[in-house]
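Exercise 3.2. Students should predict the tertiary structure of the chain below and write it as structure tokens, then compare their answer with the key that follows.

Predict this chain's 3D structure.
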Amino acid sequence: MRPVAAGAWGLCSLLSSAAAAPGPDSLLVLANTAAEGSAALAYAYAEARGVPRQRVCLLTTTTDADVTFEAYLSEVEAPLEACLAETGDPEGVDALLLVRGVPMRVSLPDGGRVSMSAILGVADSTLSDSGERLRGMPAGRVLDCGGAPCLGPAWPNPVEAGPFDRAESRTADGVAWRPRLVTWLSGRSDADARGLFERALQAEGGDGAPAPDAEVLFMDGADPARGVLDAQADAVIDQLTRRGVSARRAAFQPDLTGLRLAGFMTGTASLGTTIEGNTFAPGALVDNLTSFGALPQNFAPATAGTGPQPDDAQVSIARWVSQGVTGVHGTTDEPLNGAFPDRALLLDWFDGATLAEAYLGRMPFAYWHNMVVGDPLAAPFAVRPRVSLSVEPLGQVARVALEASDPLARGPVRLRALVDGRATGAAEAAPWTLCVAAHGPPATLTVVGEASARPTRTGRWRSKGWARFEVPGPAIDPAACEVHDAAVADAAVEAPTDAVVDALTDAAPAPNDAAPAPNDAAPAPNDAAPAPDDAAPAPERARSSGCTAIAGRSGGGVAWLALSVCVAVSRRRRSA
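Answer key:
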């Protein structure tokens, strides 16, 4: 770990603001079909998280850890752009999740190298003067490292600078920024990687409070270069304590064991039993300030148990994943010690930020060697909006009324609808009425509610809540219900009065008195058919395993409307 000379940059402030919250409406999951298990892991994540499976973007690229810039353009960026186009709202995708098997680093034309997550994070950002894309440009600049030249990060993180909405371009440091938040599902095995989102979901199944038997530990760095962030510990501990989180600081001990941890911050090139000798509560976040925690070799399958491996470079972040953390940060090449996230990321985490926001919102630099491992949607301490619906069958269509509420009253809840992963509409505030077809191939309606942000400690995170509904028709046609309502209104105007009906009934001959000839009396086939609404039985409801199924027969025939409401969430997380 090379320390940079004082004055080259300052440490991050303990104050920052939230970026747009990632959710199933704004996330793509990238997997590599050439890597065994990568696609299966991506689909397992999507199913568990309630992300439409159509938002899994399948790449076919090398299984090597490193990829050339040219191969990156053709095998990663090009198919990604095609997947973005399929979402119906490419600009609305503000987060990416890379799955184990995707290359970890990209070689740049100038001979430098950046992490895959870093280059994808700035792929759409352009230089203000020329309009060229930032990706492909040199990522580093020459700095003074104690009297000797060294290569350090060059591009300040635009997300760290303050509130950022991807839909609004921000120009700073000569760049028109359009960043994305990028994290990984990775580890030494697919099972390790899967554990990351399983633990995130487990953490979100609680009551939104820190684990009462777990603490956050700030262990001083093993040396001055790796202890450069130790100065932040006391202020963060004070703020965590105010939030009801148990936190303390300790001197460096490579073999500190027997603890249950909700978070762990340190800096060291080696650790003995401190990782494997402790347990980590679901939701625990970790950062170890050292140069080579995320080198590709550190993710090789374990051959000697769960501890350090023979080929590990320094302290592998895969060790933390194997031991049960929910998120961890590391670097894929020498970063210099000013490139690690501000320790106040834990304040954001316990205030309700998602994992992607907590880590990447506190990163000093973009387009460098940083790599965050964890579920980007994880937010065990968020208070999510609640999404619900009611259904009114209308024959061949159904009127779906969507409601949303925010327990924190952060303002109107914005709603967004996806059908089979494709953005199909949005409303600035609930309630919102959709009209869905009651026929055709089955489809999945995903409804996302996003809370408005407020400048308060827990209210500034634009948390999202969502639910999935299975519908038997993919079409959402706002005019269809209006047409139905107009037809019903016209029929009511033209219908005979009760008096006329009574008179006609009285005048009607008895069935056997004067039977007309068969052909004369035969009504047209459609004359005797009941109107669709007449034949529709009242909706039937059945509840099972946290789901509600609402069904109604359409037109007295075989077309059915069935909406399965599966909101397997806790009171806090409200996510599928």
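Discussion points: The longest strand covers residues 279-288. The mean pLDDT is 83.
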